[in-house]
Amino acid sequence: MATGTLQEAFALYEQLKKESASPKADLTKCGQYLAKLKVYLTELSFLLPGERAASSEELLLAREVLETGAQWSIRVKDIPSFERYISQLKTYYSDYNKTLPASSRMYPLLGLNLLRLLAQNRISEFHTELELLDSPDLLNDNVYIKHPIQIEQCLMEGSYNKVWHSRANVPAEEYTFFVDILVGTIRDEIASCSEKAYDSLPLPDAATLLYFKTESEVVAFANERGWKINPQDKKIYFGTTDADATDIPADQVISQTLEYARELERIV
Known about the structure:
Radius of gyration: 28 Å
Strand content: under 5%
Number of helices: 13
Largest sheet: 3 strands, antiparallel
Distance between the termini: 94 Å
Number of strands: 3
Shape: elongated
Mean pLDDT: 85
Low-confidence stretches: 46-50, 240-246
């Protein structure tokens, strides 16, 4: 990258970093900065075969931009964008780990990526990513890696209550985004099972079962799933009500069954 262009890229990155760190960050403006920086990154010479190798300064800038982009993706709730940034960052974390200084954002982002895979129910890829980590000690010692591992264990055990409570103990604020997605998935599974296991449930019991804090949240969720709520007894009804039930004409069925039996006797 030409010196002038590199300086422009650094100046633009400083603007991005300042805006991102602001308590009232303009995420739209951050996205615009990132789009411009991507253009600068495409001018990095090591992307072009046959040219000189990139300098450490260029590599460090590229890694910083991609890490900021990954964090921005979480803040704007853009999972495909986050996945793309992580895919690009893996090169810097593996191929250039001896060339560049260690990044303080590497393990928080790798842990976020593990949590993303759990939220998307991509369990085999989750275990593949764990195997690619440099040191097995990270599985127990690094809080950012340990958290998604514990979540996965809770899911395998069916300890959904622990997953719910893990939201209060996330290692970084960004982790709540994927934990909320996981809780939503768990809530849908519990709801599907409840529809088969119960005819009805009191609203307070449904709130506890589905990890809602208020009855109004339960009502909104029930309406989304088409459940019926009786405001008098404050219950959710999963199946048909008495008014909706279809009466089975028992006498007619018995009469027809006996007639079939007589016909079979004649045939035999």
